[in-house]
Amino acid sequence: MSADMGILPPSAEILERDVDRSTTSWTSRVLALLGLLGLAAALALAGTTAHHALSDAWVAPLQLSPDNEKVLDLRIQQTKEKADRARLTAEVAGIDEELRAVDLSLTRMRSLSADYRGALAWTTDAQNREMRDLDEQTSSLQAKQGMLFDLLREQQRVLDRAKANLAIGLITDIDFERQQAEVHQLEVAMQDCGLDLSKVEAARSSALARGQALTSAASARADPNQHPLSQMSPEVIKFYDDEVRVEIEVARLEAEKRSALARRRATQDALDDMVLLLRDLEARPLYRAMQRNTDLAFVPYEHLRRFAVGDEVYACAWSVVDCHPVGRVSEIVPGEVIAQDPWGELARGQYVVLDMRDRSSLFERVLRVRRTRS
Question: d(Cα 238, Cα 241) in Å, to the nearest integer?
Fold first, then answer.
């Protein structure tokens, strides 16, 4: 019976071997499936990592602070720009005051020039009134002289008759002498009238000459050489001297005003350019760093098109694996800069402002920006 128990039947042995093979086959299949799943996961992770490495934008982080050397240089430049702007502002204000003074002087000079022209017209009118008065006096004296002449001629006839009557004894010597005295009185009156007439005619000639000189001066304003100065009275020459001085002063003031306006335009243009330059500087990240720490990143142009404002910033181990978000892009700074790209080569690109949640990531050489999926 023991012999029977030590020796199994052939069918039981075969069954045992089949069970062992079945168990080994399922274990191998499970292990193979797990290996395939792990390989697929590894391939998927590698593919995703490669895809992100190719699609992400690579940026070089930069931290600016008020004590940064470039920021200090910018502060010095800003101080100089503000001093220049203050100087130009003061210069514009000075030119404005100068222009106001020139305008006031021009107004006064032009008023004085108008007064001179009015004085010439007034003098001409006074000369005309004087000529009319002298003409009236001349006419009156001429009429008086004619009347005296007629009286003298009549008295001369009376004297001749008195002489004849004296010869025949009709009148006395006293009557004759009285008639003769009247003739002498008329002759004296004639002489006095002639003297007064000569004085009036002399005054009239002088007034006529002055009037002609004034008329010539008024008619020859456009061409001073038309009438020689020898034909003008001293008053007209003095008038011309004063008027020429006023005209020269007006011309000088107008030239000075044009020069001041040109200087003001040039100074104002320089001031406007300086204001625009300062405004441009204030928009730069370096200017912001003068007040507070600013987190930046330099992005080459070939990577700049791969993201937009609001996209996440990632830090990765060895720049490839274990990527995790550390911040986001808050602004793209306009204006081209030339700096080192994430691989240490000089490249053209732009700065972006970062809003970092983990500022320790700024010490990384490279960060990655991944476009946020909507």
Answer: 5
Phi, psi of 310 (to 5 degrees): 100, -10
Per-residue pLDDT of the chain (374 residues; tens, 9 = 90+): 444 444 545 565 665 665 566 666 777 777 777 777 777 666 665 665 565 567 778 888 877 766 666 667 777 777 787 788 888 888 888 888 888 888 888 888 777 777 666 666 777 777 778 778 878 888 888 888 888 888 888 888 888 888 888 788 777 888 878 888 888 888 888 888 888 888 888 887 777 766 666 665 555 554 545 444 445 556 666 666 677 777 888 888 888 888 888 888 888 888 888 788 777 776 666 666 666 677 888 888 888 888 888 888 888 877 677 788 889 988 888 878 888 777 778 889 988 888 888 878 888 888 888 877 65
Structure token digits, residue 221: 């304003």
Residue 253 · residue 105 · CB < 8 Å: yes
351: which residues sit within 8 A by CB, 6+ positions away? 62, 285, 296, 297, 298, 299, 333, 337
> Domain locations in the chain?
2-47, 78-256, 293-370
| Cα gap 197→142, rounded to integer Å | 7
Residue 172 φ then ψ, to 5° = -90, 175
Cα R_g (the chain), whole angstroms: 61
Q: Which residues contact 202 (CB under 8 A, 6 or more apart)?
A: none
User: Which DSSP letter does residue 68 get?
Assistant: -
Of all residues in the chain, what percent are helix, strand and coil, respectively (each to 5)?
A: 70, 15, 15
d(CA 109, CA 68): 61
Separation of alpha carbons 195 and 191, rounded Å: 6
Integer Cα distance of 305 and 350 in angstroms? 11
Question: Which residues 6+ apart lie within 8 Å of 68 measured at CB?
Answer: 286, 289
